[in-house]
Amino acid sequence: MTLRLIYTTTAVQKRNVAASGPEKYTEAFIKNQIEEFNLGKRHLANMMGEDPETFTQEDIDKAIAYLFPSGLFEKRARPIMKHPTEIFPKQKAIQWGEDHRPFHFLFYTGKQSFYSLMHEIYGKLLDIQKYEDHLRAQSLLAENRKLINLIGSRWLIKEELEEMLVEKLSDHDYSMCIQLLERLVTLPCCGIEEEYVLKFRRELAIQLKKMVIEPLQYDEQGVAFSTGEGKRKTSRATAVIYDNGSGKITVNGVDYLYYFPVMQDREQLMFPFQFLDRLGIHDMICTVSGGGRSSQAGAIRLASARALCSFITENEVEFMRQAGLLTADPRVRERKKPGQEGARRKFTWKKR
Amino acid sequence: MAAARLLQAVVPRFRCLGSLGKAAPSTSQLSSRLYGTLLAPEANQQMDPTVINDKLITEPLRHPDFFNVKELFSLKELFDARVHLGHKKGCRHGFMEPYIFGCRLDQDIIDLDQTMKHLQLALNFTAHVAYRKGIILFISRNRQFGHLVEVTARDCGEYAHTRYWQGGLLTNAHIQYGTGIRLPDLLIFISTLNNVFEPHVAIRDAAKMNIPTVGVVDTNCNPSIITYPIPGNDDSPQAVELYCRLFKMTITRAKNKRKQMEVLYGLQNKADSS
């Protein structure tokens, strides 16, 4: 029985150009482009009077910006000269051989690298289980527990896994993969496959900003002092606290009673000393600039609290921190938005 | 490689075992336009390779059981692997009734004599497809045996798909994979149902694309569209291991036989010409 072609239109036989997908670049084409790029780089270096051997990508960018000045706002629309691998998107090599049989045994699933990874991980899981059964039969399981240390590292994120496999993944696929890895890690003898599992972990950059407490300094008379800096809104203050004092405070060369006439600001200055019961013990000389009266007072308060840390014990530092004396106030003035009267205040709403 | 190309020119797309020998170029071009998978045949064909290829291909088709697949399994082996155990009477599919031997305490028992016959036909067919270098795709959506099926496929040198089936894999292949792709020539279903106990989409797609299918059908499956159904249990581990072993053995046997025959006819040709 043979099939006979009865009737078709040209529409059926015309190749659907749109459906063929993004442009395919052959290897020969890309190689050609790379040669042209290298030649062009040398020409450009000669033109600019530089040495062709030591002409880097930054020099190329500067030269192109000089030779082709462009007033376009969109940066990506300006002329560029980059290596072809950065311009032409990476393509997957043809997946089948001459006889058109695909190379990979999971090719027909569509996501061959991802599913082969899942297959591999599951295979390792089964191997570990078999090893455990083997030990359990000889009742050696309790002694030979080998767990993988996962502290201080995290699993790969979806983008990193996609990069590793050169394949698009969905969120569900990624979560399935991580679940399988978690399951593998819970087995008692997973230490066998430790190096394989660690390929999927990344170190966590632990940023512990511990407060550094400066040691006390001594001036000519042998009096201990220490300095501290503080800020609040737009004010910046520096304070120097001296030991063996009587509670005198000097701000910008002026006594604090004259610089801060308002009681509220002077209370702010006193707060750290009052908290530590060291009101009449220390002398303070501080400089402050910027901001208004209240923010300057707040800046000096922070500066003096930080300076006092050198005089007191660790526990008292912790108490100060809990009281909020050592935290810089992050509140700044919010900008006014168009269409509103202030930062939050809207114009009066009129019904008609 | 030349032999492989000539072979593809010779074998028409819809796999009727009756139409043998080399297809006329016009029919293969016709099939490429309609099905879009076959290459155009080589124009330069010498006399001797065509004669060899004729013999290579026609010779196995003369015997009912060229690869002797009957010796790979016995009734006792099937019984020990619990192939005869079906599901409960309530799960029974209407079309499976001819294959069921009886019902004991509400559980269906599959007729192993019929299973033997069907299994022999199916294994014979897979052996012929593997002999003629066809692409075989193993499908099973049973999560218990997915890994085993993939391992079996890899050991045979064939392909497997035990994951979520994307709708256009067979029917929309040119857009999903690109032009020039060769679709599978045979689908083997270790379990015809998917995870929601419905018939697997690939059965219908293969029927649409004229790809023959071999499948193990349990008492709750629909055997109507499958080309070579094998009534049998698809849930016990022993049964599934038995099927995987049998398919692996037939495919490796057929491939080895193919190598032997090529060598044999190559020598014969040299002897004839000299």
From TrEMBL, chain A:
Pfam families: Ribosomal_S9
Keyword check for Cytoplasm: no
Superkingdom of this protein's organism: Eukaryota
Localization per record: Mitochondrion
Entry's family note: Belongs to the universal ribosomal protein uS9 family.
Record bears the keyword Methyltransferase: no
Keywords: Mitochondrion, Ribonucleoprotein, Ribosomal protein, Transit peptide
Cellular compartments per GO CC: mitochondrial inner membrane; mitochondrial small ribosomal subunit
Protein name, as recorded: Small ribosomal subunit protein uS9m
Gene3D superfamilies in the record: 3.30.230.10
GO MF, any single term: RNA binding
Region ranges (Disordered): 330-352
UniProt source species: Gopherus agassizii (Agassiz's desert tortoise)
Chief localization: mitochondrion
Record PANTHER family: RIBOSOMAL PROTEIN S9, SMALL RIBOSOMAL SUBUNIT PROTEIN US9M
GO biological process, one term: translation
InterPro entries (UniProt xref): Ribosomal_Su5_D2-typ_SF, Ribosomal_uS9, Ribosomal_uS9_CS, Ribsml_uS5_D2-typ_fold_subgr
TrEMBL record, chain B:
Keywords assigned by UniProt, alphabetized: Mitochondrion, Ribonucleoprotein, Ribosomal protein
Chief location of this protein within or outside the cell: mitochondrion
BP terms from Gene Ontology: translation
Protein name: Small ribosomal subunit protein uS2m
Keyword Mitochondrion: yes
Higher taxonomy: Eukaryota, Metazoa, Chordata, Craniata, Vertebrata
Keyword Ribonucleoprotein recorded: yes
InterPro entries: Ribosomal_uS2 (IPR001865), Ribosomal_uS2_bac/mit/plastid (IPR005706), Ribosomal_uS2_CS (IPR018130), Ribosomal_uS2_flav_dom_sf (IPR023591)
UniProt cross-references to Gene3D superfamilies, sorted A to Z: Glucose-6-phosphate isomerase like protein, domain 1
Coiled coil ranges: none
Taxonomy, superkingdom: Eukaryota
